[in-house]
């Protein structure tokens, strides 16, 4: 699959996730190296108003989505792959006012499970806010997700 095809598929996938739309997440990169999403900073994602620290739920959403979407980078065709397990190790709080990038890649693909790892960062990927490992179940190409989910991913629909 070409990088432009993968990028278009990733953008369609993200646009089908209402909670990601509400957080205004966007695809920064999708290629053979993995998936990178952006969570724009906004007051709506602040968990501690005194410090401006980003809520852990917003970071969890970013990283679960990024890891799950990284499966698009390794599969020959789209498959629904729900999260089996997600572990996040928080290293330090995100800085207020700065976008957060989530990057993930798949490091092992089996018949039933895809294994992913990634990081969230702001200015420097070598200074992660958190590290994550996740596993995703392969349901196969015939499973299309919830009501109209599969239709929203078809070519030309947003």
Automatic annotation (TrEMBL):
KW Hydrolase (keyword) present: yes
Signal peptide, first to last residue: none
TM stretches of this protein: none
Any one GO molecular function term: 1,4-dihydroxy-2-naphthoyl-CoA thioesterase activity
Protein keywords: Hydrolase
Any Gene Ontology CC annotation: cytosol
Domain Thioesterase: 52-127
PANTHER family linked to this entry: 1,4-DIHYDROXY-2-NAPHTHOYL-COA THIOESTERASE 1, BLR7284 PROTEIN
NCBIfam families from the UniProt entry: unchar_dom_1 (TIGR00369)
Protein's UniProt name: Thioesterase domain-containing protein
Species per Swiss-Prot/TrEMBL record: Pseudomonas putida (strain ATCC 47054 / DSM 6125 / CFBP 8728 / NCIMB 11950 / KT2440)
């Amino acid at each position: 699959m070409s990088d432009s095809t993968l990028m278009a598929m990733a953008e369609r996938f993200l646009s089908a996730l209402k909670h990601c739309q509400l957080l205004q997440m966007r695809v920064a990169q999708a290629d053979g190296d993995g998936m990178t999403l952006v969570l724009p900073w906004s007051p709506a994602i602040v968990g501690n108003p005194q410090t401006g620290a980003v809520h852990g739920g917003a970071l969890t959403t970013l990283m679960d989505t990024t890891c799950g979407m990284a499966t698009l980078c390794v599969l020959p065709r789209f498959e629904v792959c729900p999260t089996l397990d997600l572990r996040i190790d928080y290293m330090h709080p995100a800085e207020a006012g700065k976008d957060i990038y989530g990057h993930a890649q798949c490091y092992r693909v089996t018949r039933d499970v895809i294994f992913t790892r990634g990081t969230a960062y702001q200015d420097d990927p070598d200074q992660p806010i958190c590290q994550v490992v996740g596993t995703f179940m392969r349901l196969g190409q015939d499973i299309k997700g919830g009501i109209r989910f599969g239709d929203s991913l078809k070519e030309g629909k947003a």
